[in-house]
């Protein structure tokens, strides 16, 4: 009797699990419409990276919806074959499944570098296009793959952009000699953080600033107070940080508790450009810079078509998400999917990987022609987009405001140096 | 700076004590490894978060609600997950709680999404500055002191009350306890209930410094296992000492050899197991005697 009961319960548990998964992955567009074509999607929709994986998916969905409303691609409605890949192991099997069972010729994804690295390997072997929207690790495009295209800049470019901003824009306002400025770099120790740190280090050292620390830690950590005390004893003027969400919030909370005061702080995506950061830090988030893709910038820097598209995307996202504005991850997801469905595949004239590849390599869109401000031109060797660049934002009144490059900046009022903890309510005023 | 490192190490140890005390209790009494312990802690965080965001209830007060709810949750978990697998092979027991852990993670993802939810109390993100060099995190002190108080209550409960003594008796010798007329299964239920209440409490006390998200428990569970085995399976003083050792180790190596921060306590753990296989406060055979 007892055994029967336990079996019943376990079956129930499993069923709930399966239903949950199905609901997660089955949110395709209209089904059963005549003449449809499948596009593979690999994203971390559950597990530790799920938060931003789902955000990218929202961008993909809006692009799909808009394209299907406008008669689809090459007269066919687009359907997604969605695979949830919480980590790199499942990325490999998911890519195999999409290629073998769903017979897709294009896979889009994947937000996380580890997932992208693994899944693109499978795609390359099967001569299937892998269209990467937001994974930044340098080595993804350093393998000489022929079917892999990446729209975003590599991580080391991100680190360089953050450090260049420090050298060009921040340091003149610090009232210090360049060689006296002490810089500390902290980063999580996966390929994303390490490469960003490498890029930043290169620029900082070249500019002649003092690099007092370069601290790496695992993003799964429960405590960063030792890193904070070490930094406090080194007294840096500026911190360049590359952190994921949880560790980023933890670091800044503990830095505040320890009274670690700085003249400037520049983040590189992760924690530093999502609303949860302000929710956790309140006014203390204000004044912190972030280098990365922006979704809230001055659209006067865009051309007329891109501006219109930007507005439509913002409206549709807000309508679906209780009036919230999209994050950069949703915007990059939308951008990648819309370009693929609206420009690349129509130019290719078919869904065949070879044709798509040729069309992608022939693409040449100037800066300001996409909704994230970038242009598109793939490097013929690495197949990485050469016209993607990060923008710099500053947190002001608990909102993230783009300030640089100037043509995309929303405000000229930038607060440098950073006020002390607890005195940041007036940043940007 | 040394003093600062020691203080933060001990306070971090407090966090680990909180997370592992329930685990050691369930482990020690029912001899069941509760892999879903981290998820119970995660649910404790969420409950506290919702109490805070809907009723504006401070996390420290919400423990009055969290403890009974999680005790109840624990007894349900015992009745529906642990009891049916008690007579099954150990592998089945592992999969039952492991499965529950995956289920709870995904249920949280489905219900609340993957956002990082934080609670801002008047004392979170603040610290007491003793000298320019030394500052002490208020939320950690609150968590540390509250957990010590609750532990004291728990120890008194175990030493002085009938149920407490019965729990100890069952953990020491199940057969003898049964012969003395103790209803072993009922004691298991109480132990799992109290263990879960401790995990929920840990979640409530940790949320002012951390954040609730579906996999929040994962980062605590592995360290909890280290703490529990290090201190000796089933031993509450062991968990306290183990927690503080792990906290101190992490804090000290974090400053001097940051690359070994996570590795340090595992290395120490292996060394201790070589010298004292039953942990620091362990009794020989404490982990073995199961309910057959």
Biggest sheet features of chain B: 2 strands, antiparallel
Query: How much of the residues of chain A is beta strand, in percent?
Result: 15-25%
Low-confidence stretches of chain A: 17-33
Percent range for β-strand residues of chain B: under 5%
Protein structure class of chain A: alpha/beta
Which strand order does the major sheet of chain A show? 7-6-8-9-10-11-12
Shape of chain B: globular
Write out the strand line-up for the largest beta sheet of chain B, numbering strands in chain order.
1-2
Distance between the termini of chain B: 53 Å
Name the helix and strand elements of chain A from N-terminus to C-terminus, one letter apiece: HEHEHEHEEHEHEHEHEHEHHHEE
Helix and strand content put the structural class of chain B at: mainly alpha
Order of helices and strands of chain B: HHHHEEHHHHHHH
What CATH first level of the largest domain in chain A would be assigned? Answer: Alpha Beta
**CATH topology (level 3) name of the largest domain in chain A:** Rossmann fold
Low-confidence stretches of chain B: none
Overall shape of chain A = globular
Largest sheet entry of chain A: 7 strands, mixed
The count of DSSP E runs of length 2 or more, i.e. the number of strands of chain B, is 2
Organism (chain A): Neobacillus vireti LMG 21834
Domain Leucine-binding protein (chain A): 38-364
Protein name (chain A): Branched-chain amino acid ABC transporter periplasmic binding protein
Keywords (chain A): Signal
Please explain how this structure is put together.
The complex is a heterodimer of chains A (429) and B (292). Chain A has 429 residues and is α/β, with parallel strands linked by helices. Chain A has two domains: 2-152 and 307-362, 3-Layer(aba) Sandwich (Rossmann fold), CATH 3.40.50; 156-292 and 391-408, Rossmann fold (3-Layer(aba) Sandwich), CATH 3.40.50.2300. Helices cover 42% and strands 16% of the residues of chain A. Chain A has twelve helices and twelve strands. The longest helix of chain A is centred in the first third of the chain and has 24 residues, at 2-25. By secondary structure, chain B is an all-alpha fold. Chain B has a domain at 24-221. In chain B, 72% of the residues lie in helices and 2% in strands. Chain B has helices at 2-30, 37-55, 59-85, 90-112, 138-160, 162-172, 174-179, 184-206, 218-231, 236-256, 261-275, and strands spanning 127-129, 135-137. Chain B has a two-stranded antiparallel sheet. The termini of chain B are far apart. The mean pLDDT of chain B is 87. At the A-B interface, helix 1, helix 2, strand 7, helix 7 and helix 8 of A face helix 1, helix 3, helix 4, helix 9 and helix 10 of B.
